[in-house]
Amino acid sequence: MSDTHFQALVIGAGTGGYPCGIRLGQLGVKVLLVEKAEIGGVCLNVGCIPSKALITAAKRVEEIQHAGDMGIQVGGEVSVDMAKLQAWKAKIVGKLTGGVGHLLKANGAVVVKGTARLTGPNSVEVTGDDGVTTYTADHIVLASGSRPIEIPGFAFADEPVLDSTKALALQEIPKRLVVIGGGYIGLELGSMFAKLGTEVTVVEAMDQVLPGFDADAVKLISRRLKKAGIKVLLGTKAKGWEKAADGITVTVEGKDGAVALEADKVLVTVGRFPVTDGLGLDELGLEKEGRFLKVDAQRRTSVPHIFATGDVCGQPMLAHKATYEAELVAEVIAGHNRVFDARTVPAVVFTDPEIATAGMSEVEARARGEVLVGKVPFAAIGRALTTGESDGFYKVIADKETREILGVVICGPHASDLISEAGLAIELHAEAGDMGLTIHPHPTLGEGLMEAAKAALGEAIHVMNG
Predict the structure, then answer these.
(1) Exposed/middle/buried for residue 417 (C-beta within 10 Å: 0-12, 13-18, 19+)
(2) pTM for this model (two decimals)
(3) Exposed, middle or buried by CB within 10 Å (0-12, 13-18, 19+), for 310?
(4) How many contiguous H segments (helices) and E segments (strands) does the chain have?
(5) pLDDT mean values, one per 10 residues, the chain (466 residues)
(6) Which residues contact 126 (CB under 8 A, 6 or more apart)?
């Protein structure tokens, strides 16, 4: 086999690409991984990991400011050295991306830096620092990810206009920030900056923030945004911006007409768009479903030996879904009989408090038939009270006849760490009684899921049964 021919060639080394390369190497498949930017893609470098590092730091600032509630006295004002914070974040990113690079190499995957373009059904042209090289492969995996959506009047090339990448790299904390888009990215970053002392205004075109999320969770988050001093303008669209004597002026328009918002920066978080352009896919006739590539249960495109993983092949555009698909595709290429059969892709929003979901929403479940719903507040759980954070709830949704758990919503501290039990329960077709009769250690936040499952059956001990 030549140096330019591989059994598999993966385009993109993000969460939909590098796990595919590692798994292919484990399975003895000769694989080439092509990445035009950095190993780890958006998630590890400019997305999931750095954002959660900064969100955690901002949360720590808030905790220190309220330490007096526990009798802990902290002298003086809390200050943030943004340069040191960015350096700490960069160290975390470097450790993770370096580890991924080592794992790829250790498993025999070849990594090439450059921009890839398909020039035929089995050939890929890679343009790098050393010129252009054409590689051939028996199988090709498209894991090119997504990019932030740019809206008219707000070009990311303009210094005051931020996408998530630019926002996470700021060396100074802005005094005033307008966030366009009240989805999960906008609220996560907006809340983070607010904790660091920024005056934040969120502009959302819909009539609620977090469209599509559980109504009870949205209500709680909306209340907490207000408590944090974050101004939210609903049913409002951003029209443009211009320089002002002190910063910029962002013009928005709602039901009461146009309003001028004074700011230093404007962050645009209205969604992400799959990166499929520039790859030569149209010439090969790969079919699409809307803006995404059409794939089957094995993540094969309309050209069967070309696969797609992650953001390019449909919602939800989440890193863990991309990784699941990446490993699946690797095993299919290696000859294993696998299909995408996950019953749920859990989702997490790192607001304050966090929101985590698995399975159906209450609305979806009720549309399907009669359900049982158990809802327990964090305030009823002893461990939550001992942490000083008891705002939130656990919700378990089960089929009324079969008692099978259909969905779970957790809105509260550490919801992101608690939701995996719900995901496992749904994958195993567990009933509410299974979760309710599983002994959970005390005192822990995990007890809330047990209690909510019991509440769905009318058997809760620490709250009144409905």
Answers:
(1) middle
(2) 0.96
(3) buried
(4) 14, 24
(5) 89 98 98 97 96 98 94 90 97 97 98 98 96 98 98 97 98 98 98 98 97 97 98 98 96 95 98 96 94 98 98 97 98 98 98 98 97 98 96 98 98 98 98 98 98 98 92
(6) 34, 112, 114, 115, 116, 117, 132, 133, 134, 135
The reported pLDDT for the residue numbered 60 is 96
Tokens 């450059």 identify what position? 114
Confidence (pLDDT) at 458: 97
Assess contact for 203 and 179: CB atoms under 8 A. yes
Residue 210 has a pLDDT of 97
Amino acid, single-letter form, for residue 90? A
Q: What's at 237, amino acid-wise?
A: K
Strands 231-233 and 306-308, sheet pairing: unpaired
Residue 46 phi, psi (nearest 5): -135, 25
In terms of DSSP H, where are the helices of 128-280?
164-167, 184-195, 215-227
Instruction: Say which of 320, 414, 442, 462 is annotated catalytic.
Output: 442
Q: Which long-range contacts (CB under 8 A, 24 or more apart) does 381-388 make?
A: 381/443, 381/445, 381/447, 381/448, 381/451, 381/462, 382/442, 382/443, 382/447, 383/442, 383/443, 383/444, 383/445, 383/447, 384/412, 384/413, 384/445, 384/448, 386/443, 387/413, 387/445, 388/66, 388/69, 388/70
The verdict on whether 442 is a catalytic residue reads yes
**Predicted pLDDT of residue 189:** 98
What's the order of all strands across the beta sheet hosting 247-254?
237-244, 247-254, 257-263
The encoded tokens of residue 447 equal: 């007890």
Q: What is the pLDDT of residue 281?
A: 95
Domains and CATH numbers, the chain: 5-148+273-333 (3.50.50.60), 161-270 (3.50.50.60), 347-456 (3.30.390.30)
Q: How far is CA 88 from CA 94, 135, 169, 395, in A?
A: 10, 38, 12, 36
For residue 448, what are the contacts with CB-CB under 8 A and spacing of at least 6?
A: 376, 378, 380, 381, 384, 394, 410, 412, 418
Distance CA 209, CA 230 (A): 12
